[in-house]
Amino acid sequence: MVYYIADTHFGHEKIRVNCERPFETVDEMDHAMVENWNSRVKAKDTVYIVGDMFFRNERPAGEILSVLKGHKVLVLGNHDHTWLTDELAEKYFDKISHMEMIHDGDNRITLCHYPMMTWYKEHKGAYLVYGHIHNSTDYDFWPLLLEKENMFNAGVEINGYTPVTLEELIANNRAYLSRFLTPET
Prior knowledge:
Elements: E1 2-5, H1 13-18, H2 26-40, E2 46-49, H3 61-65, E3 71-75, H4 86-92, E4 95-97, E5 99-104, E6 107-112, E7 127-130, H5 142-147, E8 151-153, H6 166-178
Parallel strand pairs: 1-2, 2-3, 3-4, 6-7, 7-8
Antiparallel strand pairs: 5-6
């Protein structure tokens, strides 16, 4: 099975508050996300982490990485340089890159931490899976995101703080975005 997740920000108190995450403490948030991850992901599954896995964490990243199940592929985000060491990279990740192009079943997917306005084979139905913006609509480009039918936010705020399959990712994004779309008459 293949799963997607972005912007976990394990250990980051400020993101818990700023994104109005439903947890009383950062420890509760981290524990819930680890439990959610391990309740779904099996040892042979692959999880694509689309950036910003940790930020301003007080505990070593290895404490969480060592208990997360599955094969982990990290697509680097803007905060990953602050915690990622060569030792962690070698020990816990199958691959680390700035961008990935993969297939999930018959679906061609580009993975990039940042939302992009175009990507490889977009015109032929390929998907873009991104992170970075969490659940914020305060970006100048937000109206453009609403027009793109094949790009999906893997951020935890959109996806129940758990890794999700492609089908779940699509459904979660469509449900989230429907709140901002006006019905056509």
